[in-house]
Amino acid sequence: MKSEHVDSKKMDTLTKKEVMKTFPKIELHRHLEGTFALSTMHRIAMKNGLPLPSEFGKFKQEVQFPRDSGPDFLKFLSKFRTDWYRSLEDVNDVVYDAVRELTEDGIFYIEMRFSPEHFALQNGFDRKEVSRVVVRAANKAAAEIGVAIKYLITFNRNKQDAEQMTVLYRDLLKLDVPEIVGIDLAGDELNFPPELFKSFFDVVKNDGVYRCTIHAGEVTASTQIWDAINLLHASRIGHGTSAITDQKLQNYLREHSIALEQCITSNHQTGSWVDESNHPLGTLYRNRVPVTINSDDPFIQDTDLTDDYIKAVKYFDLGVDDLVRMNMTALECSFLPDQEKMKLGQEYVRKVNDFRATHEV
């Protein structure tokens, strides 16, 4: 795939935050647990008496990864908390405000993933009821800001085994919520490899209700991406940076339209790919591998999806045509029915044309 050469004037335009934030974006890999509105979390923390600074600036420093810090995986993980919530009303408020903020990032369509365990763990809330609250609050916010949204349920490989996942999955199926379109496997790749969860994903595959995206190849070799596809029936791969080392895998991903959900800033902060300017996304895109740009955990990272788009433009000499191709890839590899993809695709083209006309790029 030959990308356009971006002249310096267009590059300057596309790397301006106020411009790029309005570019319509399709996102497939963002964790709700890492997408909170900072001011809302400060209010919730103070209301619930969490041991966090009351002064807003100090609170911010405490709960977010330092934006310009070097990679530190343990520090990054330490920013994820499950003790924010004391009631389902807290969950509702946090989710509603988080989704309302998507309008600031130019989100056109998003498949937001969330873990019922995250919201329920501290207080033992019913997982089905938590999921209902999350979807209801997020749907309300998304409708108000005009963002199309669907949901993936995240299962954490180092918190549940395959049998426990199957029990929870069966329970959540009873919700019969059409906006939930997929299953995500996240967590510790190194110590909990794909083969441990084959029985669970066989159940999901045989039921035929949801498609699956698997975190793989972020901190492990490309063999784990192969296992995610062959053992866990992955339709998409979360991160998948190690695909850069495996040409056979790249060919397979391309031939079978299995997209890599790549996250430049997140990979830098966790240390899974330290050199942002040499992130695999650029080379994989030019090799015609289906790749998409994603934020992962913007609240934790003190960043947003727009920042990752600006990095992609700067580091990989990408122009609007390239970004549109990646977003159309994201839409094609989404878990939407074909008819919805077609409808959204037509609307997306109109949004892009408006962006081009406004900014002359």
Which key features would you list for this structure?
361 residues, alpha/beta, TIM Barrel, 18 helices, 8 strands
Task: Give a written overview of the molecule.
The protein is α/β, with parallel strands linked by helices. The chain has one domain: TIM Barrel (Alpha-Beta Barrel). Helices cover 49% and strands 14% of the residues. The chain contains 18 helices and eight strands. An eight-stranded parallel beta sheet has the order 1-2-3-4-5-6-7-8, with helices on both faces. The protein is globular and about 55 Å long. It starts with 7 loop residues before the first helix and ends with a helix. The mean pLDDT is 96.
Count of helix runs: 18
Strand content: 5-15%
The CATH architecture is Alpha-Beta Barrel
Give the overall silhouette.
Answer: globular
User: What would you call the quaternary organization?
Assistant: single chain
Gyration radius (Cα, Å) is 19 Å
End-to-end Cα distance? 20 Å
When the domains are counted, the total is 1
- Could you name the CATH homologous superfamily? Metal-dependent hydrolases
